Amino acid sequence: MGCVLKGGGGLHARVRIGAVLLAAGEGRRLGGMAKAAIEMQGVPLLRRALFGLSGAGIDEVVVVLGYEADLLQAMVQDFPVTVVRNEDYQRGQMSSVQLGLENLSGKFDAVLICLADQPLLNSHDLTALISAFKKRSSGSVVVPRVNGQRGNPIIMDWAARSEILAGEKNLGCRKYIESNPDMVSVFETDNDHFIVDMDTPEDIERLEKRLGLTLKLPHPVNAEFSV
């Protein structure tokens, strides 16, 4: 997206950063809805995520769509991003991660893997994570952790990206990351923006209560999924 990195970099060298934004899921625990289309104060979560990435100075973004792809693509057509469709999105999140990584056009120093349903995450949060990546003493991946709970997004170096595409690593698997601590540097923070997401009706209810507003949910909802 060609922005200049804003803040958080200190005296560390400017790094080129690509991002994969995942918005392909079916939202099964919400009855089958495109979670990225949920509107908060009139703005879909997908667009909010892109504003945050732009503000953090990300150089290139690949948006991966799947379920309700037509609906979501219309929301991002005015952003300078690459949009790809995962026709096999039902295979799970890792298939979308791989597709997104494959479609980054250049070589980057680091890559963010982001979820489109994190409503509180903003450019300042992303800049803090990028700063933690720059300052890490070891490892290929930086993962945020809030009071013992792993959060998102994660950020990795280019070598880790290559290993994922070669099928040698499954960094989308929480168990894999936990069992390979030599690869991972933990960004400890009390900022719960990294762990607030929109997976269940209870998640939506908690956020509405916290913010004092009502979220607008997309329709139709697929009745074959149970809430």
CATH superfamily: Spore Coat Polysaccharide Biosynthesis Protein SpsA, Chain A
Contiguous low-pLDDT stretches (5 residues minimum) are 1-10, 223-227
Highest-level CATH class: Alpha Beta
Global geometry:
globular
Per CATH, the architecture is Alpha-Beta Complex
Structural features, described:
Strands 1, 4, 5, 6, 7, 8, 9 and 10 form an eight-stranded mixed beta sheet that branches. The protein has one domain (17-211): Spore Coat Polysaccharide Biosynthesis Protein SpsA, Chain A. It contains seven helices and ten strands. The N and C termini lie far apart (37 Å). It is an alpha/beta fold and 227 residues long. Mean pLDDT is 88; it is low at 1-10 and 223-227. The chain has helices spanning 45-55, 69-76, 93-102, 123-135, 158-165, 174-178, 201-211; strands at residues 17-23, 39-40, 43-44, 60-65, 82-85, 110-115, 141-146, 149-150, 154-157, 184-189.
Give the gist of this structure.
The protein is an alpha/beta fold and 227 residues long. The protein is 29% helix and 20% strand. Strands 1, 4, 5, 6, 7, 8, 9 and 10 form an eight-stranded mixed β-sheet that branches. A two-stranded antiparallel sheet has the order 2-3.
